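LAB NOTEBOOK - FOLDING QUEUE
OPERATOR: T.R.
BATCH SIZE: 2
PURPOSE: Compare the predicted structure-token outputs for two unrelated chains run back to back under identical settings.
PRIORITY: normal
REVIEWER: second-year student, initials M.K.

ITEM 1
FIELD SEQUENCE / FIELD STRUCTURE:
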Amino acid sequence: MEPKEISRRNFIRVSGLASAALCLGVYFPASAKEEVIVSKAAADARGIEMNAWLQIDTDGKVTITDHRAEMGQGSFQSVPQIVAEELEVDLKDVNVIFAQGNPKKYGSQITGGSSTIRGSYKQLLHLSATARTVLIMAAANKWAVPVSECYAESGNVIHKPSGKKFHYGELVVDASKLEAPKEIQLKKISEYKLIRKPLNRRDTPIKTNGEAIFGLDKRLPGMLYAVVERNPRMRGTLKSFDSTAALKVPGVKKVFKVQMKVYDTTRDGVVIVATSTWAAMQGRKALHVVWDDSGFEHVNTIDIVKRQEELLKTSEGISFKTQGDPDGVLKQSSNTIDVIYQTPYQAHSAMEPLNCIAHYQPDKIEVWGPIQAPDWIQGNLSDEFKIPKENVVVNMTFLGGGFGRKAFLDYPYEATLISKEIGAPVQVVWSREDDTTQGPFRPGIAYRCQGAIANGEISAIKFRVAGQNLDHWQGGKRDKPNSSTDEGFVKPYFNSIKNISFSDINFELPIPPMWWRSVYASTHGFGYESFMNEMAALAGKDQLDFRREYLKDERCQKLIDRMEEVSGWKSRKKNEGYGVAITECFNTTVGQIVKVSRHTDGKVKIDQVWAVMDCGWYVNPDIIRAQVEGSVLMALGAATIHEITFKDGLPEQRNFYNYLMPRMSDMPPVEVHIMENTADAGGVGEPGLPPFSPALTDAIYDLTGNRIRKLPFDMNKV
């Protein structure tokens, strides 16, 4: 594999291969319900702009255009693994390039919602199988033999009776002239040689030897460097600045005001442009700025929490979903529970801080960087700068983590503004302090959960949610509930619980909220599944058996069986605490069991985590295990170590010295099990996070009798 950036000229050249290569892609005819696979030659003849995902040249080299970002989730391994399986080629012969932003060609390119594989695996399978089929057809034509006598293997087409063979490169010219067949036979799962195999990731070597190009590594001729001193309170404005001292710093070229759009408002800042990032940073230190922060509330965390609690006690909120009559049942019940759970604000803290290179020209914009949503960026820059979309080029590099933050529009927009002002390409780099303090943040959310038990069974459940609503910040109507109010809650619950409701309480603050790994499920999972554990206790039942009663569909029953089996749930010992949670997001259900005990030093420690994932069809079990392990560690940090708190409207945490990260010694043993079935693919990169915190707190309750309802908490103090 040679995963490298590709210039616009080379991209056009590679994508334009026709007579010298087999180039297959898909297009979306208005009259068809599904996409159609065509060759490049056929597409040109029909005047069709197709999505050119797959090319094979005369050397037999396969090139895949990956339309999604690679930010650590493994798409540079899993996408080639899919293609190589159905195409019958060796993985070492597969090259991967990043697609440029172009939703007309590629559809959605957002790398979020764990959608890379689940959103495109069927296309990739059919595309690869189609390429294999037309190559076999081309070989059969050359030999003048029936297609049924030929098969593909290791980049060759072989004639069974004679043993004659052509390598793919010898067939691509003829194959490119053939009409792609409409009916393709895909392999059965039992026939897979590569898919579902724990193959080593092919991007690991280049990411460890320095060859991989991340956003911070990218360089352009004549490029300048910039940092921005932004108002630490987003709604504040710039009153004045003195650049005298900054301009005396060697290498500093220019200092000026910039306004970065953040949702429907702006964040004022002062740009320092220099010949190096270091010079720009030194110039920033010498800058003198006066802000005007009047006219809006300066929030404090203690007040945020109190306001959420008060709203949960006094407001019914906006109904999201109701079935049955939970209010009526709760009023008449004597065996009830009414509790509040609270989760904190969080920063994204990706390993690679935000950065972006932009080159603005009067008739063209081109950007490079760690970008999760190239199609969104292309559309936004086109709209904001009144330049046709086809003249806005968005180039993806590798991402050093994203977690949703690098799908936002603000930082490429700001870089483009700066490039326009200075008339040159510029790389804008955010410091770790910028990244930590300026957000947008995962919103802290509070939950009021009420439930009733009658005769050992759930008779009613009522959930109310108070937290910032991303829908509102993205232009949604204030009288509508959060569209993700029940995210994380396992859908089969609705089939078994007759009286249940969810409502969203409008909660507005001058703090920009943002997606975070597993989005709302990362917080909802704690509230909803912690409450299910409390309901089990109120009913006097085992937590896992309790879920078995209400998650009655076959896949959930098998998942629970597996959880029970791998954890030794039925043979739990005294002085050991076991906790359980099951959550669902992005079409994947994950159950986790956490085991804790009090060690000789008196502290409660995590001894083991068992995670069982049902993601349907999947590619690489090693990637799944890595993603679940990473999710557990990220969830552990958010549950027990770090949070963003506000004082006088300012985040109190600035860098890793007070926004602490989990250390290697904090990582518990994690055992990951994958359910085998033929269901459609679900997500992998995010669903492993939500069940951890409720399973952990349930385990602590099981051991100590102490019920934890507010995150984060200190493991050393339970």
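ITEM 2
FIELD SEQUENCE / FIELD STRUCTURE:
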Amino acid sequence: MAETVDAREKGTISIHTENIFPIIKKFLYSDHEIFLRELVSNAVDATQKLKKLSSIGEFNGELGELRVEVSFDKDKKTITVSDRGIGMTGDEIKKYINQIAFSGATEFVEKFKDKGDAKDIIGKFGLGFYSAFMVADKVEIISRSYKAGENEAARWECDGSTEFELSTTTKKDRGTDIILYINSDSEEFLDEWRLNSILEKYCKFLPVEIKFGTKNENVEDGTDAEGKPQYKTVTTDRIINNPAPLWAKSPSDLKDEDYLKFYKELYPFSEEPLFWIHLNVDYPFSLTGVLYFPKVKNDFELQRNKIQLYSRQVFITDEVKDVVPDFLMLLHGVLDSPDIPLNVSRSYLQSDANVKKISQHITKKVADKLQEIFKKDRADFEKKWDDINIFVKYGMISDEKFYEKAKDFALFKNIDKQYFTFEEYKEKVKPNQTDKDGNLVYIYASDAGKQDSFIEGAKNKAYDVLLLDGVLDSHFINTLEQKLEKVQLKRVDSETADKLIDKDEKIESVLSTEEVEQVKTVFEKAINNKNFTVSVEPMSPGDLPVVVTMSEFMRRMKDMAKTGGGGGYAFMGAMPDNYNVAVNGNHPITQKILKAESDDAKSKLAKQAYDLALLSQNMLTGADLTNFIKRSVDLVS
């Protein structure tokens, strides 16, 4: 128990302005729980400094048990953070606590007083301790330096004004106790589980043990007469943290099961990750961490904010969009860097040169890891492709440097579940899918089930069909056409099979010009929809009698609008759907329509052929589907 002696000193905190405390409270208000993070972090720093002094022979005393303890007293309305670190003398308290030593404080206050934002206030100006005044009416420090005798402890007290009182006191052991007298607006923090949750959030991996109260555990206590284990309940210290987290260890000392166990510690309800990257950089910046590749679902927006950012093992935020490239926000894991500047008032990251370098480094490491897996075990990489392709494609769309690396390991998958690199696919389709202008045409399906009849038509011409059915593929297709020289991509149902690749091959029509016009008129009347444009074309007699398509351009614009293309894409998405109806002039049904005895019979046959085309696209619904079924029954009766 501390005991005050006579030596007292009163003074004014040297901050050159009385407005500093309202400014601190204003900046930190939205994250007021971080007062505990700041005080515990300071206590950990003091402990580590003592360990360092001991290691270099500057401190020869017994270190004893080094841990930080957090406690609270609901009746007295106090929260106490205690450590057994280096402690402070009265002079050191005056130096580090009283003199908030930055020049031009008045200008600082004037500059930021009307803004809800300021860069790195705490880190730059040593104000971490003063975050205590967000929740406390009064703060007391009792500290004894590791160099001092038992009766040379110091006691400092301040009520949140610029006035303080410093006196001598006694303290049994070295170190510092920070005692907060909680104000009436912050009594929510005088709760065991509230404090526990804050400590677990921010201090879960601090490098010094953090004790907070006790917990009951069941431990084995011998066996009964039948040899079955007996248990008893014991009370143990509740240690909040794991002082030696996996990312702080050397990769050479770790096994796969260590990484998987740590993943479960971070994300207890997630599936096992596919693989991971252990980051360990010393120069030109400091960065450690482990990034895990999860199994990404198509609703990838729900997967974000899974990477946790730490600074010297202190949790900062899980909003890492400025440090991690947007396409890698789908990853899970931990990053730890003391070199990332922080706006502590909201824990948002500031975009500066260091952050950009770190972001670029992470991008490079991810690309290198994927390249390594691809080269080491192609078959294993192909198995993972369906899970990882979403962020590989996202990266290729959004990051030029990543595209340049990824184009060597990114894969195309066709509807037969075969995988090809870009170069392999080019060589595969070049002989049969080159148009009259020398362009390679890559044909793709976006929904193999719905587009099956079109896929069969393409296969009948020995064309290969890619499967591009992911949430980002409409954007990815545009990127490919920009990057791949003399390559066009066409959706399999955007044209009739004969027109997908223009090889300047003519199919003779069996219809006269007059018959073509007759057939066109019959179908236009039967369809009676201005959004459907009818044409009669010579095709193979084995092709479908009618094919309904939307142009590649229109389909792509609408797909882009659905996936948030923005700009002109949103306008295209609001436009009515326009379709082309290609009637096969060489099909036997066309001849049957021409030979029908009445206009009604012609119209019925045309409508039936048209509805068959709609049915093949899953576009026939409601009353139209019912009528088609009735008409089909009549025709076969």
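REVIEWER COMMENT (ITEM 2): Residues 410-505 form a domain with the Rossmann fold fold (CATH 3.40.50.11260).
FOLLOW-UP: none requested
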